[in-house]
């Protein structure tokens, strides 16, 4: 199958361009994610994630479990839970089952 695809790609410049474009996009996404994980502390990444989700949904309530957040962030659930508990004790968020409610956006933005 890869040989057939390579043959068609060599014969069709449009398929070749689309293939390279998709590969480039994917590489950029992976590179960005690796950069975030290596050079940005987890508290900052989690704060940014929560603010982005809030802006995307136009709501201060994020209907996700800690496990779902961890998967999307490429982290362990325990790490997410620990940091969310810290955010909760600092008064940044309010935690309920399957939900994170942002109560102090300014504090998260400062992170």
Order of helices and strands: HHHEHHEEH
Low-confidence blocks of residues: none
The major sheet is characterized as: 3 strands, antiparallel
How does the overall form come out from the CA principal axes? elongated
Average of pLDDT: 89
Please compute the radius of gyration using only Cα atoms.
Answer: 19 Å
Protein structure class? mainly alpha
Distance between the termini: 49 Å
How does this structure look, described?
The model has no long low-confidence stretch (mean pLDDT 89). The chain is mainly α and 111 residues long. Helix 1 packs across helix 2 and helix 4 (66-73) packs across helix 5. It is elongated and about 60 Å long. The protein has a 3-stranded antiparallel beta sheet. Helix content is 73%, strand content 9%. The chain is built from 6 helices and 3 strands; from the N terminus they run αααβααββα. The termini are far apart.
Name some characteristics of this structure.
6 helices, mainly alpha, single chain, 111 residues, 3-stranded antiparallel sheet
Structure at a glance:
The protein has 111 residues and is mainly α. It contains six helices and three strands. It has helices spanning 2-11, 13-39, 42-57, 66-73, 77-90, 105-110, and strands at 61-62, 93-96, 99-102.
Helices and strands, with pairings:
Blueprint: H1 2-11, H2 13-39, H3 42-57, E1 61-62, H4 66-73, H5 77-90, E2 93-96, E3 99-102, H6 105-110
Antiparallel strand pairs: 1-3, 2-3
Helix pairs in contact: 1-2, 4-5
């Amino acid at each position: 199958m890869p040989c057939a695809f390579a043959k068609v790609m060599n014969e069709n410049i449009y398929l070749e361009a689309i293939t390279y474009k998709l590969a480039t996009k994917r590489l950029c996404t992976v590179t960005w994610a690796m950069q975030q994980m290596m050079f940005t502390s987890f508290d900052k990444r989690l704060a940014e994630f929560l603010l982005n989700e809030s802006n995307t949904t136009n709501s201060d309530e994020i209907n996700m479990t800690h496990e779902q957040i961890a998967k999307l962030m490429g982290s362990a659930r325990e790490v997410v839970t620990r940091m969310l508990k810290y955010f909760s004790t600092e008064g940044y968020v309010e935690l309920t089952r399957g939900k994170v409610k942002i109560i102090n956006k300014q504090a998260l933005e400062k992170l």
